[in-house]
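Late entry, evening session. Most of the bench is empty. Finally got around to the prediction I had been postponing all week. Sequence below, unchanged from the version circulated by S.P.
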Amino acid sequence: MLLPRLKNDHIPELKLNDLQNKMKDQVSGKVDKGVYEFEEIACPICSSAKNEVIGEKDRYGLFFKTNICTACGFVYTSPRMTQGAYNQFYNIEYRQLYVGKETATQAFFDGQKQKGKYIYHFLKKNKLIGDNPLFVFEVGCGAGGILDFFRKKGHKVKGIDLGKEYVEYGKNTHNLDLETATLAEMNLAEKPDIIIYSHVLEHILDINEELETIKACSKESTLTYIEVPGIKEVHKNYEANILTYFQNAHTFHFTLETLTNLFTKNGFQRISGNQFVQAVFKQATNQDKIESDYEASKSYILTTEKNRKLYPFTVRGIKRNLQKAVPVILDKTHTRGIARSLKRLLTQNRSN
């Protein structure tokens, strides 16, 4: 095992609230009793069965065996829960375990809206969206906050998700066109101009079939926006702790290179992308070669783990700790209101 710290000891890396602990125990019980069944898979990009085990648990302390393909460098989970098990998990435990709340909230929706703004500006920056109204379709829309931002920009929107409570919240509270369904179940009357998968593709079990379904639902000019947690950004976004990156709902773990390999294999070409990972693809006329990311990914994982304890002393780590500490200090000294007033005053002075 590449990272012995990730042995299956059932100890969570995150601090869980009561609801999250309840859901963790519920999932573990179903796994132990065989209610949630597991399956072994080979690498979905190159079909190789040769791999190295990275770890055996996720950030919640759930059994979670991650592997890196020694042929192409793709990081994936195997064994993993079957589709039937995951369908139940998403409908019963997923949001409560991950968000720590039983239902969607306005705060959750507002967070999604901020994500929508982020995606919109990424597309705008890369000159992939303009002022003309487009049909924007999102797979895994949650409560629909991302789509709400695009709707306010004048675009026609529609979304699908498997979480019934979150879909109903978006429909009833914000009057969004949302359905509880998978992409394969949809029969769209109009082919989208943009398809959004924001932190969704890593959840899908048969990603090659999903990409074929995307092609069937698309026109030649359709842009597919993919955003997934980038494994090569662990040192930036996860405090250099890969254990907080791994979570049981994510069956695949991408770098920009392995995501590009996956789409290349399925007849797409990359238009833009970064290691965050954010990337945009469209159907290709010529197929590029797949290049292995094994050495680079393995080296990154091992180096990041080696340097993990140094993170609090880096500039990024010091800033992150200050961001955490300041609100606590303000609350304990009852000066949060004063700080907000000073911030507003400073903002007004700058604008003047």
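Two things to note before I forget:
The chain has a mean pLDDT of 93.
Residues 4-99 form one domain.
Will write this up properly tomorrow.
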